[in-house]
Write a structure and sequence with these properties.
eight-stranded mixed beta sheet; ATP hydrolysis activity; 5 domains; ATP binding; alpha/beta; DNA binding; DNA-binding; Rossmann fold; six-stranded parallel beta sheet; 36 helices; single chain; Arc Repressor Mutant, subunit A; 843 residues; UvrD-like_ATP-bd
DNA sequence: AGTGTAGGTCTTGAT
DNA sequence: GACCTACACT
């Protein structure tokens, strides 16, 4: 037990958070332990409420991580638990690392003793290794990534004679992943769902996939939790052991948990009861989260000290299984839960916060928080229209240069896009400008071919049954062991029910192979035998180097004259170097399969370019938000697939984007954008209309002179700006705002929010045909539950072949092809173009 | 076995 | 328009 008799061991971390909370709080703080200094009253409550379930609703920039880490420090210093008795889970390795780091600053070395601080998967994996045999695995099982998964499924599909074209392995992988996310074993998948794949074979394929995994001594990501849940259910004694061990549970980003993670937490968070009421109460999770919750709900066990931190307004991962419901339902699941709201924002200025809050207020399914700041209003959020995406990139580039001239750091500038294909235009622009930039979240280190190859070698050494790894490298570098040979090994292996590697060992003793192939295969087998023997006596880093050299793998890239070969060799070196941190090969492989680190480490001053998703948790002084157009943001596909829920998630994404900014948030939209190669005209995002006029400034792009050079488009752009600007001053818009503020946006009589009214006021006043279509596209059968959900595809075109048409930009032309609402038109002057039908009119 | 080309796709992406 | 995959060709 660590009773902190020496307060000096826990030092408060200097924080840029301004001292808040008034005199009373400060007076109290000065009495309490040092690490509590500087916490505001809500934060302090979240830290000090140790007993019973606690939900901390932590809005953006309210000091969430600080609360979590301080809470751990508090538990330790109060002597309530030892480091090894605290279970602390995060989603990403990055978040786990951050917590370890912050804790290290507070506690010194005590962090070393926190073996249960990590991601859901790393902790699940750790537990599974202890009980591997209960899942028909060995403790050295391999963790498969998505690629391995897909290849394995492909094999199963082939074996079942299922057309891989009609029923792609990727799709099945997605289904299985979805089931696992929802905590469903093969037998529990609802029949209707299992049937959607390959005419009813989906469920059976899932079952045989699971069987194959056991044979390969492998688990996929989903299994790391699912097998935990299974073991906990089937072995109450083991569950009890963990329940007793974990005196405190802390969960980060609770709004991102999926059903499986939820079940896992529920099991672990129940007070250990010798009567074992638990397993009975926690049987079948149904397919549906709410029902699953009910199965577990309040009933028997008294939940213990679990503290979940999250923000329903930042739930942006619904598409990969996250259940916002988990957080919305918390006090139902954990009766007597204390809910603490952190609403003091220490990051952004008043205008930025107001804009973000007003936007997110349009969502209905939320717990409701109001972010406040004591900061000054600062600059208004700007909204800037551009003619096309190129001009948008140019404008942002110039703005960045201006910021730079003011002496600000590029590190404090970020561009947050909705979709990664938007990035290229910015990269192009920055290269021409010579502006240093970095892309966050590009291709992952571990996904690179050379890294996967190298790991495959190590995996085969570590686990000879790892057929997927063996198959990957058996002919890399080229050894003359092609498909035919591999197919033969497969047959052999299947017949005798042995791994491919053993099949290879047997086959080289026969004369079934041509002498050449037989020779190389024998060499491969001999090499692996040798490496495995060396493993006992050689440091794992040296072994890795030896393997890469002796296998000819390094040489393969040295001989390669392509541009990226040097980089790949560099990556391999980096891989070997990174192994040093681990005790042995097993530990390294475990880590690498769960981790996706890739930080090049270059900490130069550069602009950051990333997606909105990967920006969560980050903050910058200046944030650019380009591409706020219908179809792109909110994304048409999300709307089509998820309807209202999708729209709300997109809106949360916008909220996340704006709240990344400390001092300046700059939103952009373009009138024309290239989508899948063809230019299309777009309309401004509805989210722009949802921003509060008082905190937003409509601007012409800075450095107006730059437009001059482009020539030709000046007039129409000006029209656009006028039209757009007017949307903030029309009576319709203002009335719409008033409506929203009063009644949450849904006024009776089938009118949908303020949109239609706005559009109606809008279009007659505009002579621009684009805006005429703007209103017409926003009318009609576009509403779900009385609210607008955009729709742009699927409508049959009202045009016919050979129709004579007029387009604002391209002039007169003739329709040559019709594809839904997309027309191919041979223009008299501009040549053949594809355009959306709503942007042309009959001539 | 390795290369060339046609066809399909084209959010977001942790573990 | 670009990239990846799968098949066909040599």
């Amino acid at each position: 037990m660590i009773r902190m008799t020496e307060p000096s061991k826990i030092t408060s971390v200097p924080d840029h958070q301004p001292a808040a909370g008034g005199i009373a709080a400060r007076a109290r703080a000065s009495v309490g332990p040092k690490y509590l200094t500087g916490l505001n009253p809500e934060q302090r409550e979240a830290v000090e409420t140790l007993d019973g379930p606690v939900l901390v609703l932590a809005g953006a920039g309210t000091g969430k991580t600080r609360v979590l880490t301080t809470r751990i420090a508090h538990i330790l210093s109060q002597g309530r638990a030892r480091p090894a008795e605290i279970l602390s889970v995060t989603f990403t390795n990055k978040a786990a690392r951050e917590m370890k780091h912050r804790l290290g600053q507070m506690l010194g070395h005590a962090v070393e003793g926190m073996p249960w601080l990590g991601t859901f998967h790393s902790i699940g994996g750790r537990i599974l290794r202890f009980h591997a045999e209960l899942a028909q695995l060995k403790s050295n099982f391999t963790v498969l990534d998505v690629d391995d998964q897909v290849r394995l499924l492909k094999q199963l599909l082939q074996a079942e004679n299922i057309d891989d074209k009609r029923w792609p392995a990727r799709m099945l992988a997605g289904l299985i992943d979805g089931w696992k996310n929802r905590g469903l074993m093969p037998s529990q998948v609802p029949a209707g769902e299992a049937a959607v794949f390959a005419n009813g074979k989906g469920g059976k394929l899932y079952a045989s996939y699971q069987e194959r995994l056991k044979i390969l001594n492998a688990a996929d990501f989903g299994d790391l939790l699912l097998e935990n849940i299974r073991i906990f259910r089937e072995h109450p004694d083991i569950l009890r052991q963990y329940q007793q061990r974990f005196k405190f549970i802390l969960v980060d980003e609770y709004q991102d948990t999926n059903v499986a993670q939820y079940l896992w937490l529920r099991l672990l968070s129940q007070a250990p009861s010798p009567a074992a009421a638990a397993p009975g109460a926690i049987d079948d999770p149904s397919s549906d989260a709410a029902a699953a919750a009910q199965a577990l709900a309040p009933a028997a066990a008294r939940p213990k000290n679990i503290c979940c931190v999250g923000d329903d307004d930042q739930s942006i991962y619904g598409w990969r299984g996250a259940e916002v419901d988990n957080i919305l339902r918390f006090d139902h699941d954990f009766p007597g839960a204390k809910v603490i709201r952190l609403e003091r924002n220490y990051r952004s200025t008043g205008h930025i916060l107001a804009a973000a809050s007003h936007l997110i207020a349009h969502n209905e399914g939320r717990l409701g928080k109001t972010l406040r700041t004591e900061d000054h209003d600062g600059e208004k959020v700007t909204v800037t229209g551009s003619w096309d995406s190129e001009e948008e990139a140019r404008g942002i580039g110039e703005e960045i240069e201006q910021i730079q001239r003011k002496g600000e750091k590029l590190n404090e500038i970020a561009i947050l896009v909705r979709a990664s294909y938007q990035m290229r235009e910015f990269e192009d622009r920055f290269v021409t400008l010579g502006l240093p930039y970095r892309v966050i979240g590009g291709p992952r280190f571990y996904e690179r071919a050379e890294i996967r190859d190298a790991l495959a070698y190590l995996r085969v050494i570590n686990s000879p049954a790892d057929d997927l790894a063996f198959e990957r490298i058996v002919n890399v570098p080229k050894r003359g062991l092609g498909d035919a040979t591999v197919q033969m090994l497969h047959d052999h292996a299947r017949k005798r029910r042995i791994p491919l590697f053993e099949a290879a060992r047997a086959v080289v003793e026969t004369d079934e192979l041509k002498p050449k192939a037989r020779g190389s295969l024998r060499e491969v087998v001999a090499q692996f035998d040798r490496w495995r023997a060396q493993r006992e006596v050689t440091a794992h880093t040296d072994l890795a180097q030896i393997v890469l050299d002796e296998s000819g793998y390094t040489e393969m890239w040295q001989k390669d004259r392509s541009a990226d070969a040097a980089g790949r060799l560099e990556n391999l070196k980096e891989l070997v170097r990174s192994m040093e941190e681990f005790e042995n090969l097993q530990g390294f492989l475990e880590h690498i399969s769960l981790v996706m680190d890739r930080d090049g480490g270059a900490e130069d001053d550069a602009v950051s370019l990333m997606t909105l998703h990967s920006a969560k948790g980050l903050e910058f002084d200046n944030v650019f938000l380009p591409g706020w157009e219908e179809g792109l943001f909110p994304s048409q596909r999300t709307l089509d697939e998820q309807g209202r829920a999708g729209l709300e998630e997109e809106r949360r994404l916008g909220h996340v984007g704006i709240t990344r900014a400390r001092r300046r948030a700059m939103i952009y939209f373009a009138t024309n954008r290239r989508i899948h190669g063809t230019w299309s005209t777009t309309i401004p995002s509805r989210f722009l209309d949802e921003l509060p006029a008082a905190n937003v400034e409509i601007t012409e792009s800075k450095g107006g002179s730059a437009w001059g050079g482009t020539g030709g488009y000046g007039a129409s752009r000006f029209d656009d700006m006028e039209a757009f600007g007017s949307s903030y001053s029309t009576p319709g818009w203002q009335r719409a705002q008033a409506n929203r503020n009063r009644g949450g946006g849904r006024s009776g009589g089938g009118r949908s929010g303020g949109f239609e009214e706005e559009a109606a006021t809008f279009s007659p006043s505009s002579s621009d045909p684009d805006f005429g279509s703007f209103s017409s596209r926003r009318r009609g059968p576009l509403t779900i539950e009385g609210e607008l959900v955009a729709k742009s595809t699927g409508t049959t075109s009202e045009f016919a072949l050979d129709d004579r048409v007029f387009h604002q930009k391209f002039g007169y032309g003739r329709v040559t092809k019709i594809d839904g609402n997309k027309l191919t038109i041979a223009f008299d002057k501009a040549g053949e173009k594809k355009v959306v039908d709503s942007f042309v009119q009959r001539a």
